[in-house]
Amino acid sequence: MKRRSFINVLLSGGIAVWLGSVIASIIAYLLPPEAAVSDASSVKAATTDELEPDSAKIFQFGKKPGLLLRLEDGGYRAFVAVCTHLSCTVQYRKDMGVIWCACHNGKFNKKGINIAGPPPKPLDELEVHIRGEDIFVSKPVT
Amino acid sequence: MGAINRAIHYLDERLQIQQLIDFGKKKSVPLHRETVWYYFGGVTLFLFIIQVITGILLLFYYRTGPEEAYESIRFIMSEVRFGWLMRSIHSWSANLMILAAFIHMFSVFFAKAYRKPRELTWITGMLLLFIGLGLGFTGYLLPWNELAFFATKVGTDIFSVVPVIGEPLLRLLRGGEEVTPATLSRFFGIHVAIFPLLFVGLLALHLLFVQRQGMSEPIGWNEMPPDKTKSMPFFPNFLLRDLLLWLIVLNVIALLAVFFPWELGEKADPFAPAPEGIKPEWYFMFMYQTLKFLPAKVLFISGETLGILVFGLAVVLWLIIPFWDRKSARGEKNRALNYVGLFVVLFIIVMTVLGYALH
Question: Which CATH architecture has domain A42-138?
Answer without folding.
Answer: 3-layer Sandwich (2.102)
